Amino acid sequence: VDELDKCWRESSAAAKSSLLVDLTNISFVDEHGIELLARMHKQGTKLFSTGLMTKCLIDQIQKNRRQNC
Length: 69
Fold this sequence. Notes:
By secondary structure, the protein is mainly alpha-helical. The chain has four helices and two strands; from the N terminus they run ααβαβα. Helix 3 crosses helix 4.
């Protein structure tokens, strides 16, 4: 999580909105990781997965963002 956060923070604003994070092969995401993914999504990063658990996680992140708007 720390390495992804570092790389993401170092990317330009334009790059952040064109990033796609593929979570397909991820089997576990802790609270710190969920918070980072939510921040990234809020800044325009697209989240993608074909795995059931991570698809549900992405849906939840997107749902929470819509509720906070």
